[in-house]
Amino acid sequence: MSLILDGVGKRFITKHRVVHTLENVTLKINQGEFLCLLGPSGCGKSTLLNIAAGLEKPTTGKVYFKEKEITEAGPDRAVMFQEAALFPWLNVIDNVEFAMRMSGMPKKERKEKALQVLKMVHLTEFQDSFIHELSGGMRQRVALARALTMDADLLLMDEPFAALDSQTKNILQMELQQIWWDTKKTIIFVTHDVKEAVLLADRVIVMAANPGRIKKEIKIQLARPRCLESLDTAYVEAQIMRELKNEVEKVAKAEYDSDWDLEKDTILLGPDHYLGIGL
Amino acid sequence: MAYELGVEYLKVWQPNGFPSPINIAKTLEILLVDHTLGIAVLTSITRLAIGYGISLVLGFLFALIMLRFKALQENLSPLLLGLQTLPNVCWVPLAVLWFGLRESTIIFVVVIGSTFAITLAVESGVKNVKSIYLRAAQTMGAKGLKTYQNVALPAALPEIINGMKQGWAFAWRGLISGEMLMQVKGLGEILIVGKEKADINQIIAIMVVIIVLGLMVNKLVFERVEANIRYRWGLD
Fold first, then answer.
1. Are strands A34-38 and A203-208 parallel, antiparallel or unpaired?
2. Does residue B195 fall inside a structural domain?
3. How many domains does chain B have?
4. Closest Cβ opposite residue B133 in set A74, A85, A99
5. Does some domain include residue A270?
6. Residues B155 and A89 sit within 8 Å (Cβ to Cβ)
7. For residue A121, is it within any domain?
8. pLDDT the model gives residue B1
9. CATH of the domain at A153
10. B69 touches A at CB < 8 Å
């Protein structure tokens, strides 16, 4: 058992009201498992990830990693954010070496290992570039390389591909699948993209909003390597979509006016709908 | 040309109130030949270097202490801002009473003038660092001083450089006003002597020297550092 979330809850108290972002989430993640947290925006999946990373503290409940309670962020759990969070004052290789420098690894060893992971993400040619010279997809690959250098067994990924265009995204999903296969790391991957979840995960946790909680757990038992075009993934996807639809609608309802309805608004009104109304 | 036109033909300027560039150059040459200028520049620059060096150390130190203890930050920030508005010259009488007519007096005036600009810049620079950098660093095992050294300060560098430039300008002001009022060797002294001799050429010659020195340091030090930062961050 790698990570255990035990009755985790999180409340944010703002000026006007108390928001329950998470309520009583209990989850066990196995060693070497690829787990996707899937849900509409606002269901607290990022908060859950931050709690696992130790960047936020749960209001109730406890989190254990390898039988030890998590109290703060640490290098035993690597995190990848939606924006690459690379340091603009360092070049690519120095960025990749950062975590190793913090742990006091000697320079030569550091460099060797940095080059090794850069090779994994196919970026050795750009080792001396600065961050602003890279495209969005390249930045996320550098961020992935940086996370891989830490030798953490657990990799926490917070919608890392959400801001990328869909072609780049597909390539990176395939690369991530391969790297996970090669390194046997435990990965918790937050996403709102059903396709992505089905493609990558062993197990998908569908979350519900207000308050954020686990709605359903779905094991994905498709053969690997999976690819986006296959019919199996599309079938499982449709299954999960049905699960999610209610939730999406619920969240959307809270944000739209009260007369909004998904069914009605998906019927397109023809231009002659009101024909003759003014006669 | 413009000068000739103004003085000789249009008679808008008096030659004894607005000297010709040629005369200024001549005065500069005289000052150079009898080594007054060389010695003055050297002593002034040495003082400035010592004073500015101390300011840098103190400025960073104060800023880090203020960042570490929130209560200090809340109470001291307005005070520092107030002290910043106080012109350097105001410290000269106080410094003379404290230290006497000595070298350390001028250095004190230089330091007190430039330290707070640096402190304020470092403090606000670090406070404005994007939180994602700090969070990322945290997950990679950076803690305490290491975070400051490797993340907070480099991330705040663009703002810090601005503060250092400002501090440099304040240091110059402190230096010249201190030297003028105390009449110890240096550029400020030659300026005052020029006034006493009613030698407009000398006064303007020294002003030119000060401006040139300031520009040179800016060009050689600050601009290079800034260009480097702009290149790295991709701000060009």
1. parallel
2. yes
3. 1
4. A85
5. no
6. yes
7. yes
8. 67
9. 3.40.50.300
10. no
Instruction: Indicate yes or no: CB of A83 within 8 angstroms of CB of B132.
Output: yes
In a domain, B77, yes or no: yes
Split at pLDDT 50, 70, 90, the class of B129 is very high
Number of domains in chain A: 1
Determine the structural domain holding residue A206 and report its residue range: 32-56+66-265
Residues 6+ apart with CB under 8 A from B133: A85, A87, B151, B155
Q: CB-based contact (8 Å) between A104 and chain B?
A: no
Please indicate whether, in this complex, the C-beta atoms of B234 and A102 are within 8 angstroms of each other.
no
Q: Cα separation of B164 and B179, whole Å?
A: 22
The answer to whether A262 contacts chain B (CB < 8 Å) is no
Is the pTM value of this prediction over 0.95?
no
Q: What is the pLDDT of residue A226?
A: 87
Could you tell me how many CB contacts below 8 A there are between chain A and chain B? 67
Among A87, A91, A156, pick the best mutation site for testing chain B contact (most B Cβ within 10 A): A87
Check if B137 contacts A (Cβ < 8 Å). Answer: yes
Single out the residue of A191, A192, A210, A278 nearest to residue A23, CA to CA: A210
In a domain, residue A12? The reply is: no
Q: What is the pLDDT along chain A (279 residues), one digit of tens a residue?
A: 789 998 898 888 877 777 778 888 999 999 999 999 998 877 888 899 999 999 989 999 999 998 888 888 888 899 999 888 999 999 999 999 999 999 889 999 999 999 999 998 899 999 999 999 999 999 999 999 999 998 888 999 999 998 888 888 998 999 999 999 988 899 999 998 899 999 999 999 998 887 888 888 999 888 888 888 888 888 888 888 887 887 777 777 777 777 766 666 555 666 666 666 666
| Cross-chain residue pair A81–B146, CB shorter than 8 Å | no
Residue B136 in contact with partner chain A when CB distance is under 8 A: yes
Whether B135 has its CB under 8 Å from any CB of chain A: the answer is yes
Nearest-angstrom CA–CA distance, A9 and A126: 43
Q: Report the alpha-carbon distance of residue A215 to residue A182 in Å, rounded.
A: 31
**What is the domain range of residue B87?**
21-233
Task: For helices B153-182 and B223-233, give the axis angle rounded to 10 degrees.
Answer: 170
* A206 part of a folded domain: yes
The CATH number assigned to the domain holding B173 equals 1.10.3720.10
- Is B139–A131 a contact, with Cβ atoms under 8 angstroms apart? no
